[in-house]
UniProtKB/TrEMBL annotation:
PANTHER family: FE(3+) DICITRATE TRANSPORT SYSTEM PERMEASE PROTEIN FECC-RELATED, FERRIC ENTEROBACTIN TRANSPORT SYSTEM PERMEASE PROTEIN. The chain crosses the membrane at residues 20-41, 72-92, 104-125, 131-150, 162-182, 210-234, 246-271, 291-310, 322-339. It is a multi-pass membrane protein. The keyword Nuclease does not apply. It comes from Psychrobacillus insolitus. GO terms for molecular function: transmembrane transporter activity. It is found in: Cell membrane. SUPFAM superfamilies: ABC transporter involved in vitamin B12 uptake, BtuC. InterPro entries: ABC_BtuC-like, ABC_transptr_permease_BtuC. The lineage of its organism: Bacteria, Bacillati, Bacillota, Bacilli, Bacillales. Keywords: Cell membrane, Membrane, Transmembrane, Transmembrane helix, Transport. This is Iron complex transport system permease protein. GO terms for biological process: siderophore-iron import into cell. One of its GO terms (cellular component) is plasma membrane. Coiled coil: none annotated.
Length: 346
């Protein structure tokens, strides 16, 4: 896909939604509220003065200030992971033309999980950098496999076939994960907390490791958005507009796997964030991916951060992992979407 191809795509693109500015302002306000709540709420409530001390007064070494400093890195990590999962979900839905595509539904998270378990069991990996590369490999292989299985037959890769292929693949890979872990207690001990999906272990080291993958993935997604708008009209129309559909799908899928794999490696297999964020933005703003993709990043950050806060409050004095909270919210929504007649095409 070259620059001349993209310039041809801009003509059929939609105009800026009339409510885009209002939605953007509301999302930034919600984002600020989520950040403040994440710093203040938890097993230990802190006041505004303690938040200020933790943010701006490094010389103060009180317990409350240290709690705030820990929550700062956790909050930033949650925002970045939520943004990555939101964009990944938008890309997967666009590439597959499947309105219920999501890293967790298509089995991509489970592929990353399997490779990380194999790394822990057989390669003795233990660092974030090693987790990321194994998760990316597992995500990519699983995505190709699921799309290949879902594309078989006369009708090609329909939404229902992709979901069924993803569910079957996820079930098979989950069985392999259990088969590897059960005889190895040390693997189970190291893996069980990661498996649930949590941002509680987020620190500045993991954030630094994650940021390059996030930047590359989001840049590819934004550049691909105009051409993905044309792809939504069908392969024949997109080809007529100058889009190389095969290359476009490859780059967009690469971006989705990069974002999902990196987030999964560091935070665990957190599901439904991409599904929820993209559907909310598409419902409000319409189908234009030039706006849906960046706004899915913001809404994904909001959803994951507020879910983390809810998990802390529900599980107090401990915490309920964010992966459990997003699954509890996302599963009923997935059932509703699957029951809609329009789910057969995007």
């Amino acid at each position: 896909m070259n620059s001349s191809s993209i310039s041809k795509i801009k003509k059929p693109s939609l105009n800026t939604p009339r409510n885009f500015t209002l939605v953007l302002i509301i999302c930034f306000i919600l984002l600020g509220v989520c950040v403040f709540a994440s710093l203040v709420l938890g097993s230990r409530l802190v006041g505004l003065n303690e938040v200020i001390d933790g943010l701006f007064h490094s010389n103060i070494d009180s317990y409350e200030a240290n709690v705030v400093r820990k929550r700062i890195s956790r909050t930033v990590f949650s925002l970045l992971c939520g943004a990555a999962l939101g964009v990944s979900g938008a890309l997967m839905q666009a590439v597959t033309r499947n309105p219920i595509a999501d890293p967790s539904i298509l089995g991509v998270n489970t592929g990353a999980t399997l490779f990380i378990v194999c790394g822990i069991a057989f390669l003795n990996i233990s660092t974030a950098n090693e987790y990321i590369w194994l998760a990316l490999a597992g995500s990519a292989i699983t995505a190709v496999f699921v799309f290949g299985i879902g594309s078989m037959g006369r009708s090609g890769a329909t939404p229902i076939k992709l979901v069924l292929a993803g569910a079957a693949t996820s079930a098979a890979l989950s069985s392999l994960v259990l088969a590897i872990m059960i005889p190895r207690s040390h693997v189970m001990d190291e893996f069980r907390f990661w498996q649930v999906g949590s941002v509680g272990s987020g620190n500045w080291s993991s954030i630094t490791t994650f940021i390059p993958f996030l930047i590359i993935g989001i840049l590819i997604a934004i550049i691909s958005a105009p051409a993905l708008n044309a792809l939504a009209l069908g392969d024949d129309v997109a080809t007529g507009l100058g889009v190389r559909t095969g290359i476009l799908r490859l780059f967009a899928a690469f971006s989705a796997v990069l974002l999902c794999g990196a987030a999964t490696a560091l935070a665990g297999p957190i599901g439904f964030v991409g599904l929820l964020s993209t559907h909310v933005m598409r419902l409000i703003l319409g189908p234009d991916l030039r706006f849906v993709i960046p706004m899915s990043a913001i809404s994904g950050a909001i959803i994951l951060t507020i879910s983390d806060v809810v998990g802390r409050l529900i599980g107090s004095p401990g915490e309920l992992e964010v992966g459990v909270v997003t699954a509890f919210i996302g599963a009923p929504i997935l059932i509703i979407l699957a029951m809609r007649s329009k789910v057969s095409s995007l």
